Amino acid sequence: MLLYNCFFFVLAIKVNYIFCGYFDDECDVIVSERVRVGEMNISASQCTIDEFESYNCFDENYGCYKPKYAVPGFTYKNGVLDKFDSANRIYELEAQNPKLCAKYCLEDSNCQGFTVVNTLYSNRLCFKKLKAFFKGTLPSHLPSQMRSYDRIAYVTSTCQQGFCQENYKNEGNKDFFECRTICANGNTCSQFTIGTSSCLTSQHCQFKPIVGDKITCTSKPEILSPKSLYNDKTSSILLDSDTSTCIDIKFYPYIIRFPFPGVGKLHSPFNIEISGTSLNCLNEMERNILVYVPFQSQFDVTFFGKFKLCEISLSSKTECKYSCSCGDRFCEGVYIYTFHKIQPVELCEIKFL
Length: 353
Description:
mainly beta; Hepatocyte Growth Factor; Jelly Rolls; 3 helices; 25 strands; 7% helix; globular; disordered N terminus
């Protein structure tokens, strides 16, 4: 159990809890542990446009960075508690820890975010939310301090903080699910951006990670490495439930990333089945396929960093199965790296079990 200046006192027979943990200075983060937001030349106004929409920390000698209690897969803000989930309530007091409250949210496919509060409210400290937060004045009957988080961790889209510079179409005030549906049903939409009271759809996206109150997501979940020489459309071959359609891996490696595998159900290791020809997933000297997950919390969508290999549960020339885990957190992504080593390889199908 993690405790940050938390305490309780006894008054008569009744136990009254006062929780001040997770509510100290959220920007008190030593430089070596900061997670940068945007580019180094980001301005203070671009870093935190409105603390009720998206909150980041700013240091004129460093730039923009994530608050101490930021959680991967969520934007962080100071917002009003509204439309929280009346079912599956979380009464666990330790769930005031945003990382634990986030885990409960990610287990629920309908959860769009959560709030943690500094004092017990309705006998709870962690509130899952069915709708995104809204900007407004804090009613006097609610707890005096709140940490609020909007979810951007989904298996259906790869999302990150920032916006597309290209021309876009404004679809109005929509939440993630509504905006994604509009984009998915459009013939030309490849990315959509959720901002303050806006849903922006784009055909092409030159991504800029400098606007703190906007989140840009892909219309499909998977993305290829930015250095990939393969067409983005090749990924559909791997997800068409047809093992006779394959990608020929002759000269260049094929690296693909899927976001937040395993969310929407109770937290546990997740399994992947990969089909192809001439696969070698077990023999280290001849191995031509790797499956791995982030070694530590990953805030940015990236193909670089520290990773750990998934465990192999089945190995053959035509099929490899893996079990992957990130410990007590949901993995922010999973990567599949296929390459030509001794002989050409065909990659045919990727299935999450």
